[in-house]
Amino acid sequence: MASLPGSPSVRTPAPLVAIRGLSKSFGPVHANRNIDLDVLAGENHALLGENGAGKSTLVKMLYGLLQPSAGEILWQGRPVVLGSPEAARALGIGMVFQHFSLFENLTVSENIALVLPPERQSRLDARIGGLSERYGLKLEPARPVWSLSAGERQRIEIARVLLQDPKLMILDEPTSVLTPQESESLFAILDRLKAEGRALLYISHRLDDVRRLCDRATVLRAGRVVGTCDPRAETARSMAAQMVGAQIAEVSSRGGAVGAERFAADDLSLPAPGLHATALRGIHLSVRGGEVLGIAGVAGNGQDELFAALSGERLASDAGAIRIDGRPAGRDGITARRRRGAAFVPEERNGHAAVPGFALSDNLVLSRHATGEVSRGGFLRGAAARAIAREVVETFDVRAGAPDPAARTLSGGNLQKFVVGREILREPGVLVINQPTWGVDALAGAAIHQAILDLAGRGSAVVVISQDLDELFRLCDRLCVIHDGTLSPATATAETDRDDVGLRMAGTVPSPPAGTEVASAPVHAH
Amino acid sequence: MNPDMIQLVLVGVVTAATPLFLAALGELVAERAGVLNLGVEGMMVMGAASGFAAAYLTGSTLIGALVGTAVGALMALLFGLLTVVFAVSQVAAGLALTIFGLGLSGLVGSAFVGLKRDAAPHLAIPGLTHLPVVGRLVFGEDYFVYAALLLALAVSHGLRRTRAGLVLRAVGDNHGSAHALGVPVRSVRLLAVLFGGACAGLGGAYLSLSYTPFWSPEMTAGRGWIALALVVFASWRPWRALGGALLFGGATVLQLQAQAFGIGLPGQFMSAVPYLVTLLALVALSLRRRAGSVAPAMLGTAFVPDR
Amino acid sequence: MRIELQPRLNPPRWLGFAAPVAAVAVALLIGGVIVANLGKSPLDAFLVYFVDPLTQDWSLEALAVKASPLVLIATGLCFCFRANLWNIGAEGQFVAGGACGGALALATHGADHAGPLGGSWILPAMLLLGILGGAAYALIPAVLRVALGVNEILSSLMLVYVAGLGLDYLVRGPWRDPAGFNFPVSVNFDPDATLPTLIDGASLHAGVLVTLLVVVGAALVFSRTMFGYEIRCVGAAPRAARFAGFDEKRLTLLVFALSGGLAGLAGVMEVSGQIGQLQPSISPGYGFTAIIVAYLGRLQPMGVLVAGLVLALTYVGGEGAQIALKLPLDVTKAFQGILLVCVLGADVVTRYRVRIVGRVMA
To answer: Which UniProt keywords are present, listed alphabetically (chain B) (predicted)?
Structure first.
């Protein structure tokens, strides 16, 4: 009873895709258990769940990247085996990946050509041009990807799927790297796709976006479907509660008194450290004790470079460019800055904040060897390191399977609690933290937020770099925006809103103070 | 020097460059797919030993060349199994293959030490090959040289203009993305490695069949390593590798000529010239390109699909 | 059919010991096939290679003397390889060390040693020169890497050929023994320039003790010191090492100097303990075989000690097999290569659960 496309006269059509009893296990881990899910033609269907709930595993099976351990997938009523992404694409399933599946050193049109049947270059370029007229997707086919911004990169992903003329489009966290305005123009495209009768399977942790976009939502928790709902009839809070399965404690601000300046950058400039990296230009910031300063920005605008410069992984050319408690620290390395009471948490847990193959006690030594009691006279003090690691684990409720396990055996949320706890337990006077809850489950995220606010409440100065505007508005007293290596002046959080910050993230400065340089176009200077 | 002597020297340069170029061309393809094969030396020397043995036993240079190529590919299969399928460190596995190849080639070739056979046949086109000054250089090389040029043409065209080349470059640029799109990353890499090994084997066979038409143990004398340096030197571009190979061929011939003309430097110093030139070329390249690297982004990193 | 690798999050400890043993076993099987193909009995070959050398005093001494340079060089390589730095020029650093130390032996040859020290300072000075020579030679690729980003694999290897040719030139030229009937060798070293033997009249020289000390020291450095921690960290996650505040450039120079110094020490001990003079070639490929030793020993000094003895066995046994079974020395080299391939293969099993999966149905 397959229905031909474009024959709406068929009564009670089979769902476009029906998932029946689908399970997937990796060794002892059950990523998906007995999942049932229908997506109707022309439907915008949201897939909700925490990090680790099994959303990615499910869509990877739908896209042919993983094979189910049990259960079946019906496409327009007929059971199908999706043995490869190619098979999925042949049926009309397209996917836009969260972390982009692009090739930096290939051109836009080469990136697109890879998933399409071979065709002449000129014809492909013309078709890419056609997308611009139809959906407003502007792309320059000959540009190499490394020269493009996050928004432009996502347009390639979407163009790549659209040129396959998909019936079902899977989008995995498509707005996580976009500004609010860029998200809005994405939604306009998605609206048009819906009008064309295409179905959407939409994964997002931004519940407001889900409410704006989707007709139906399926909620996953710990690998199982725990419910279906109409997002429009729900609130973001009620959906979040379904996802987590518990009420998340509201983080409470401390309202501590704001003290003297503890950490500052003064006209900090650094050349780009590599070919595809961003130069920092004239950064000014100042944080006082008891205060949380937020730095918003779209990924790839210099956040990593700024973190390296603030932490001392890269030295400034001038000692005065960084001040800790009023004294110059620009020429001090990260170890020396730690000795002066600063602490740092980088974005990437695996391989930056922690060595995946090292035990937690060895990972403790990573940032504590200069300040703690874990080394003396060039020798390691293993017992001391183990004792402090145990204290971090207990204080910050790090759930680990063994007494002193390797870092890679911990879940993202638990490892993040460990690397944050490792720094906070030291009671640092200054904390610089990059993407504090990226890829972390909601409960762990709330715990980390509370720990940051408590630290500030005890008189420390905190800098939070994040792409997540909700997080920044929740935590910060003042906000500034990084764009293409320049930092905007800070504004009190109470005096700004998401739209204003979003515009500045895109590089369009709404009425800057006199004398400030205006970055006009969101193009990277390479 | 009169023009004919210059031609003779240039023919010598081409001959010295060809084995380096063949090996470098193959390694370039493997590296564009993201695999660093440090076993080139071992594959080359095995190609030389087995190629000579086969040619001596059958009396056919062609069969010798084919066997050398096949043995190079076989060695590469072992390397590919280790690095591409089982994700072993590419550096370690490459070293293992080189040590293994040097040992095994001695064993394979031990019965053939000291034997000689005629050099590989050269092209002869009546009227053209005997042109003065350029005849032998352009129309009178051995067949390997023309085969190498055709291969370079195919590789250069294939990498830039074909779907296979696009897939190969994509795998070398980001294997995670390629996998997510359904590109069979490991198969592509395995094929690229096999091609690289085959080219190295052919380059080795050239040494024992044409360059010096006899086999002697460890006769590659580091040419596999020089070929690896050539790929870096050529910034992973086929035609630049040709230029680089000619430069190194020139250095080799210069060394031989200098010894023949009795220049007052000790012979050992002249023998060291190709290695020193390689080192200097690497240094010069680094001086020129401090800002960033044009190496394939995935070069040397193993790919393990996430389950 | 497809092969899937599932990373082991907590590899069991016993695998770390079992894997190298299994690798040796598999390599022995393959070696047996090769020997059989050469028309010899694999069992005879096994006895000659791996049992006979263990049954006699002189061959046990030879084993220790051959193992000493392998272990010394491989211990140095552990420092580099653990930090993910690829010094594969140990063969050249070995030669450089031997030549530098040997130069002093030749310079002081036959001289009268007045003064309170007599000639007793010569040997320590030679060892020191050997260490310095090897370290300096290893620092060339290290400096090029740190300052210019030159690939250390290729540069360190090129320097192997240069060192070999350099020694060849010196021994055939300025250092040749004028009374040596035109043989390309130097004079024999004076007793003051020769490592003492541990047992009178035996070949076992004091260098073996030095090697043992170095191994124990290196094991302590890896497990107990911040320097060892730094090396492990840089090798496992360079970005995390930068986050820890470790200076990768400084570390690169240090580990290269260390491994070059140990290779140089091995070189000077070889010429002053084993050979007793300088020759155009002073190493049967120790610098490359040491790479196998380092991997077979799982990049740990204590493991390297055992692995060095295993590889030394193939050298001593190989010489025996050449005489007793007329097996070419190439068998030894091929076997060593096979062994390294097997060691790397066995390592896969320790890091991953390997599963062979049938194609999906349909």
So the answer is: Cell membrane, Membrane, Transmembrane, Transmembrane helix
